[in-house]
Design goal:
The protein is of the alpha+beta class. The protein has 14 helices and nine strands.
Length: about 300
Amino acid sequence: GPGAARNTGIRSATGDYITFMDSDDEVMPGTLQKMFEAAQKFNADVVHTTQFSYALPDEEGNMPLQLIDDSVLMFRNDIDRNAYTEVTLLSDDFDSRLEDWKNRRINWHVCSKMIRREFLLSNNIFFSDMKLAEDMVFCFECLFRAKNYVIVPGGGYVYRITATSLSRGKKTSAHIIKAMKSQIGAVRKMSSVLKDIPFFATNPDKAVFAIERVLNDLEVGFVRPAFQELGEEILRSDGLMSEFMRENFGDNAPYVEFLFYELHKNYEPIIDYMAEMNDKEKWEALAKQSQENEQGKI
């Protein structure tokens, strides 16, 4: 998985700073230089950009190989809500950092970061074996271990929406189980991380909140939308859910499985944000609206 590959990269790298890319994406020219200059200026442990560009397929669904060509339609999107508008060195007030993380002013996408390699090694910060949202826990640990954490507004990371991206949104019982295994892994990893950070060790209620937030993001991002699409009958049909429950809850498995189905049958419908992320039509509509807004300013 990506976490294991990235861990190999961290251990093998020889440069001062590390940044990550998904294999089918690109970075606009000058982006890494801008981030590195901010890192040098503030002696940063982490530099964090706040914006992605989404490259869109053409009418036949084909994606140009060179996404950074100006002729390619792209839509800029702030991934941090109410993001910072100027280069900012965060204070060492962890209550403030937690509030920013809670309100998503600081995102958990690892591809928007440049991180000092020695900072990662000296703090033993590596990706867990979670199969989903492993970068959320990784970025959380970076945020609360970094002395100098710098926000750089905007950004030139280009996310490519491809057929592979779309396939990630297909729902199966295995998809739900992968998310629930990641929830179990998140509790273990977050518990280990939080006990070693003095701020959370002395504020156990905030440690509990942080764990619950990660669990909830996995729930609303993956588990609940998949259940909403598949339903109880399909999930029960292949026996994978019952097997998962037995492996993790032993004699309590029937009761836990009962609770799972009863809760999820009675939840209010939820928007599938992960599916929207890879919805070509959505981004085309947003790009069109963005263009119209720009033309209206002229």
